[in-house]
Amino acid sequence: MYHWLERRIESHVRICVMALLIQRVAEIEHKSSWSQIRHCLEKLQATEFFSINHRLFRRNEIILEVSLLIEKLKNTVPKAVLSIEKSDYHTLSFCSNTRIF
């Protein structure tokens, strides 16, 4: 990242430090490395569905490993349907997968 303004440099550093802090807290709470935690959380995904009038995001089924990790990190499982909105798309159906975390 290239920033020239002092406030942007400072904001970038703060965001990086915050991300590192979140990683360390997760490692300490779960007693495992960040790569193991991330690998587990990558299994939690959302799929975007389109219909003639709507667009919705739905998460996949949560496996036990992910559920236990989320519980141990003192967080809540995301709702099954994350978002429903009216769309202007005129396609019958289309879907794409994205990671939640």
Give your account of this protein's structure.
The chain has 101 residues and is an alpha+beta fold. It has one domain (7-99). Helices cover 42% and strands 24% of the residues. It has a 4-stranded antiparallel beta sheet with strand order 3-2-1-4, with no helix packed on it. A hairpin with a 3-residue loop joins strand 1 and strand 2 (54-59). The radius of gyration is 18 Å and the shape is flat. The mean pLDDT is 88.
Please describe the topology of this protein.
Elements: H1 6-30, H2 34-41, E1 45-50, E2 54-59, H3 64-72, E3 81-86, E4 94-99
Antiparallel strand pairs: 1-2, 1-4, 2-3
Mean pLDDT: 88
Low-pLDDT ranges: none
Q: Helicity, in percent? A: 40-55%
Shape: flat
Brief sketch in words of this structure:
The chain is of the alpha+beta class and 101 residues long. It is built from three helices and four strands.
Keywords:
alpha+beta, 4-stranded antiparallel beta sheet, 101 residues, 4 strands
